[in-house]
Amino acid sequence: MSGDDIFRLFAYLLPAVVTGAVAFYFFRLHTRNEEGRRRFLLHKDSQKDTLPIRLQAYERMVLFLERISINSLVVRVAPKGKDKNDYENLLIRQIETEFEHNLSQQIYMSDECWNIIKAAKNATIQIIRSAGMSETDSPDKLREDILNQTMEKQSPSATALSYVKKEVGELW
């Protein structure tokens, strides 16, 4: 093969290679676009199915936060005896029971939101424990001490509740 033959062969082959490369590029672009469209449609369909479940999980956690708010908890759970330690343990048990009942809801919300809810629960328990360390001797006085501690500042439940509302607002 001479140099002219190689040059002619190259001249015939070059447009075919360029056309093939352009066709490959457009085919790949089209395939990616179709894959993205399918992914979007699947996400849209799954969102339609999961959104009500996620909203229900957030509703349950709002109810949990409302039930463990200090004011609500102390009013709802009355002392059963004369021992302040028994009442303190009863309040903490109520919080833990409510929390355990709603543990499965964490799969429907962000880790940050779940951690804030856990922190609110732990902070509420801490408020009850610190009030229980006071020199009071009756459950009724303990109730007053717990309420007095929360009158001065925003309750942990209210802080967590505002975050949950913000996160639910981002779902739309």
Task: Give a written overview of the molecule.
With 172 residues, the chain is mostly helical. The chain has a domain at 52-170. It is built from six helices and no strands. The protein has helices spanning 3-68, 70-76, 84-101, 111-132, 139-151, 156-169. Helix 1 (3-68) runs antiparallel to helix 6, helix 3 packs antiparallel against helix 4 (111-132) and helix 4 (111-132) packs antiparallel against helix 6 (156-169). The protein is rod-shaped, with a radius of gyration of 31 Å. The chain starts with a helix and ends with a helix. 17% of the residues are buried.
Q: Major beta sheet, specifics? A: none
Q: Could you give the count of β-strands? A: 0
Number of helices: 6
Assembly type: single chain
Q: Fraction of residues in helices? A: over 70%
Helix and strand element order: HHHHHH
Distance between the termini: 70 Å
Mean pLDDT: 89
Q: What form results from the Cα inertia axes? A: rod-shaped
**From the alpha-carbon coordinates, what is the Rg to the nearest angstrom?**
31 Å
Our estimate of the beta-strand percent is under 5%
Low-confidence stretches: none
Return the structural class.
mainly alpha
Keywords: Membrane, Transmembrane, Transmembrane helix
Transmembrane segments: 6-27
InterPro entries: DUF7935 (IPR057695)
Short descriptors:
single chain; mainly alpha; 0% strand; transmembrane; DUF7935; 172 residues; transmembrane helix
Task: Describe the secondary structure blueprint for this structure.
Blueprint lengths: L2 H66 L1 H7 L7 H18 L9 H22 L6 H13 L4 H14 L3
Helix pairs in contact: 1-6, 3-4, 3-5, 4-5, 4-6
